[in-house]
Amino acid sequence: MPLSLPHATIDDDVYRGFDIPKVPDANVFTPERFLNENGSLKPSDIESIAFGFGRRICVGRHFADTSLWSIFSKVLTIFNLLRPVDENGEEMNVEPKFTNDIAVHPVPFKCRIERRIPGLDAAGLEQLIGAKP
């Protein structure tokens, strides 16, 4: 289980000869700190942080990434993921909420899942996604 604990230094520090500068206002949300001078997003390793680094990096990281991409692309090809509706048929907004645990994940939420292709049966679905029974 990846811990990926958020961290920032509140004072200048030195660790094994590396200078770690203090983060100004580490507890204040300032998204500008993640932008370059030209306004583009600074490069980040956030996508790979869950898989570790160096000698202990997960050997299955590429397989996991490719598998998730394949699953999500197939789901989005076949289904529309929509906002839930209230009793009057009006779309409701979904507030993104997450747990405050060590491993952060979204809390359950309501949504609508509809087929993109009406009348698509299991055989047609298998043919569409290339699945073999």
From TrEMBL:
<protein>
    <submittedName>
        <fullName>Cytochrome P450</fullName>
    </submittedName>
</protein>
<dbReference type="Pfam" id="PF00067">
    <property type="entry name" value="p450"/>
</dbReference>
<keyword id="KW-0560">Oxidoreductase</keyword>
<dbReference type="GO" id="GO:0016705">
    <property type="term" value="F:oxidoreductase activity, acting on paired donors, with incorporation or reduction of molecular oxygen"/>
</dbReference>
<keyword id="KW-0408">Iron</keyword>
<keyword id="KW-0479">Metal-binding</keyword>
<comment type="similarity">
    <text>Belongs to the cytochrome P450 family.</text>
</comment>
<dbReference type="GO" id="GO:0004497">
    <property type="term" value="F:monooxygenase activity"/>
</dbReference>
<dbReference type="InterPro" id="IPR050364">
    <property type="entry name" value="Cytochrome_P450_fung"/>
</dbReference>
<keyword id="KW-0349">Heme</keyword>
<dbReference type="InterPro" id="IPR017972">
    <property type="entry name" value="Cyt_P450_CS"/>
</dbReference>
<dbReference type="InterPro" id="IPR036396">
    <property type="entry name" value="Cyt_P450_sf"/>
</dbReference>
<keyword id="KW-0503">Monooxygenase</keyword>
<dbReference type="InterPro" id="IPR001128">
    <property type="entry name" value="Cyt_P450"/>
</dbReference>
<dbReference type="GO" id="GO:0005506">
    <property type="term" value="F:iron ion binding"/>
</dbReference>
<dbReference type="GO" id="GO:0020037">
    <property type="term" value="F:heme binding"/>
</dbReference>
